[in-house]
Structure formats: C-alpha cells, structure tokens
Design goal:
Strand content: 15-25%
Structural class: alpha/beta
CATH class: Alpha Beta
Bound molecules: guanosine-5'-diphosphate, magnesium ion
CATH topology: Rossmann fold
Mean pLDDT: 87
Helix content: 25-40%
Number of strands: 9
Order of helices and strands: HEEHEHEHEHEEHHEHEH
Oligomer: single chain
Number of helices: 9
Shape: globular
Strand order of the largest sheet: 5-4-6-3-7-8-9
CATH superfamily: P-loop containing nucleotide triphosphate hydrolases
Length: 259
Amino acid sequence: MCETCGCGDVTGQNLLHDPDPHHHHHSHHSHESHDHEHLPDGRVIRIQKDILGENNKQAEWNRGFLEAKNSRCLNMVGSPGSGKTTLLERTCTDLGKKRVLYVIEGDQQSSLDAERIRKTGTQAVQINTEYGCHLDAAMVSRALKELAIEEGSMTFVENVGNLVCPALFDLGENLRVIVYSVTEGNDKPLKYPYMFRSAQLAVITKTDLIPYVDFDLEQAREDIRKTNPEIQILEISVKSGEGLKDWYDVLVASSPFPK
Ligand SMILES: Nc1nc2c(ncn2[C@@H]2O[C@H](COP(=O)(O)OP(=O)(O)O)[C@@H](O)[C@H]2O)c(=O)[nH]1
Ligand SMILES: [Mg+2]
C-alpha cells in the first residue's frame, strides 16, 4: 500500500476484479471502485465512486490542451534503471534536429535526468515528487504550461521509476509506453500486470545484454501478451542501435509530424 497516493485500495478493488481481461486500452482513463450498501429490505445498492476523479478531469484537460496544439504526449513508465532516460536521450539526439520535442522528467529528487536531456539540446522540465511515487495529471499540466509547447510538437513524460502506482494515473497522454529491460528478469509482467495492461506499447530494452543474463525473450513476449493481448512489443538496444528504427517508426506514426 502506497500511503502517498492511497493507490493500494484502488488496485485491490478495481483492477483486481476487472471483469474483462481484455479491458486494457486506455483502461487507465477511468478508475471506479464498486461498493455495496445493503438496505433493510434486502435490496442492494451499488455505489460507484470515481476515486481518481480529480486526476481524470485534469488528464482530460491535458488531452484537450495537447489536442488544441496538435501535439502528442507519451508517458514512459517502468522500473528505475530500465533505460527510460537513455532511450529518450538517444531519441532527442536522433529526432530533435528535425522535430520539436520536449521532455518532462519525474523523479523523487534531483535534476539529473533533465540535465541529461538538456545536453541533447532538447528542452526539459524536471518535476520532483519528494515522497510521491508517481506523476499526476496536475503536475504534468504545470510542466506543459512551463514548456509553452509549440504546435505540432511531441512531449515525452518520463514517469517516476515504479511498476505499481503510475499505472493508475492518467496524465492525458496519447500513448503509454512500458520500458522493461532484460536485466529485470522474466517475472515482471506477471508480477506487475496492471502496469503492462495499462500501456499500449512495451519496449523491451538492453537486448544487447541478453547473452549475459538469464532472460528468455520468447517467454517475455508471451507473458506480456498474457497480461495485455493487444499490446505492441518492440525490442531495442540503445547501445547497439537494434530496434531503434522500429521505435522511430512508431513515434512518427503516432505523431503530428510530417511523415
Ligand atoms: N547495455 C545497455 N545498457 C543500457 C541500455 N540502455 C540503458 N542502459 C544502461 O542502464 C542504466 C540505467 O539507464 P537509465 O536510462 O538511467 O534508466 P532509467 O532509470 O529508466 O531512466 C544506465 O547505466 C544505462 O547506461 C542498453 O540498451 N544497453
Ligand atoms: Mg531516468
């Protein structure tokens, strides 16, 4: 149970009892918990509470704000050290000359990741969540305003490294990307299914290290698809460059940029 966001309750009540196992696409946009109230005559009233209602409203506002600017936003989630910043540094270096990109960095403390991004020449804003374990839509809204984003741009949000809480918070993004490295072991998709279920794209990173670690790529694909049958999966090594073209193809396909 995470005390800052209270998301333990939400997870237990809501996603655990998701009646539709295929319910994944943008499933993070609505989080309702169901409760029962028993009347004296035996009838049961079902009470729906939108626990994350405030966040969802702000996320919708963000989506509208981005839409009005014909701008796209990606929410990069994953464990600490899975390679999110490394992939973003490379992306900014490779695409940043031709396209307007922005990065919003979320960490408990420090500006280390924003500084890494700025070295590529890309504008970056750092959010420090202190005791918080995830970014929420209000934080992203403030960062978007600070960036004064241009028409037709693309903003990458690097969420706080965490496979639990960020799954529940819609930021108003157009695409959620789970970054999962081969050094994390094969068990993560089955242990943290909500994160994999809430994303539309899984990027398996550090594939250059496969010969050195016990990681079964075929099993990983199978387990990711088990949690989310419709998710798209890419395999990337920023070190060797493997799979980067596929990643850029996805970005261009989902972007407002000219093809
Ligand atoms: N071998 C290898 N190491 C990588 C790759 N991508 C990231 N790393 C390393 O993994 C570590 C964590 O990366 P980082 O991007 O900071 O992870 P983050 O916490 O998800 O942002 C760093 O030491 C990176 O150099 C990769 O494709 N191959
Ligand atoms: Mg990082």
